[in-house]
Amino acid sequence: MNRLALLDSDSLALPPIEEIVLDEVTIAARVKELGAEITRDFKGCELTVVGILKGAQVFASELVRKISLPTTLEFMSISRYQRRPAAKEVSIIHDLEQDIAGRHVLIVEDIVDTGLTLNYLESVLRKRNPASISICSLLDRPALRLAEIPMRYVGFNVNEEFLIGYGLDYRDRFRDLPFIATMAL
User: Of all helices (H) and strands (E), which one includes residue 153?
Assistant: First the structure.
């Protein structure tokens, strides 16, 4: 099956990807640059990288390979309250396994839109007394921001188009694509 094709939610029909926005080479180069920046900024420190599931799993895994520091990789799964889409309530589905008190923490996201969920998560983690908290997102949509988010590391700014690939999904599919693309909805 062609990796440029997408599965329709109702059948095995394959609607096309509209456009590859960020190819594999471009993403890999930026992840390497981010790893170098993080290595420089946290020189002499140990770092706890907290990837937000499921979307940031691919990015977080690649990023830690480019950070030349002692790191631990943790994952959290969070969800906004489902019955009221505009609600600001967030629940933690899967929490950290290790204590982050006194640790330098890097929260890693696939994409930041409104920032509401990430704002909540940052406040929860701050209460756990880390030495520092920084945020790294592969993609940022500042035009949609509703909460003030101190983004320290950003891979790429993107517009409001629906994106898939490199961890981003449509109905839990297409996270495995090695590039980021728009799709016909």
Answer: strand 151-157
Omega within 30 of 0 (cis) for the link into 54: yes
Amino acid at 46: E
Beta strands in 9-144 (DSSP E): 17-22, 47-53, 71-80, 90-94, 104-112, 132-140
| Average pLDDT, 10 consecutive residues per value, the chain (185 residues) | 43 66 98 98 97 95 97 90 56 90 97 91 95 97 91 96 92 90 85
Q: Which of 113, 140, 172, 176 is catalytic?
A: 113
Amino acid symbol at 172 = D
Which tokens in the block code for residue 44?
């002499």
The reported pLDDT for the residue numbered 9 is: 44
* Whole-prediction pTM: 0.87
> Which CATH number fits the domain 23-161, given the four candidates 3.90.1640.10, 3.40.50.720, 3.40.50.300, 3.40.50.2020?
3.40.50.2020
Q: What is the pLDDT of residue 172?
A: 85
Does 41 participate in catalysis according to the annotation? no
* 121: enclosing H helix or E strand: helix 116-126
Segment (H or E) for 162 = none
